[in-house]
Amino acid sequence: MTSPHHTPDWLLERIALGELPPDELAAARARLAQEPDGPSRLAALEADSRAILARLPPQAVAREVMARAARPDSTVAAAHVVAAPRRVEASPPRPSWRFLPVLVPVLAAAALVVLVRPSTSSDVREAPATWGTPGILEPTRSKGLQPRLDVHRQSAARSERLTDGAPARAGDVVQLSYTAVGKAHGVLLSVDGRGAVTQHLPGHGEADSQSAVLERSGTHLLPRAYELDDAPGFERFFFITADAPFALDGVLSAARLLAASPDARTAPLRLPPELGQTSFLLEKPSP
Question: What is the pTM of this model?
Answer without folding.
Answer: 0.57
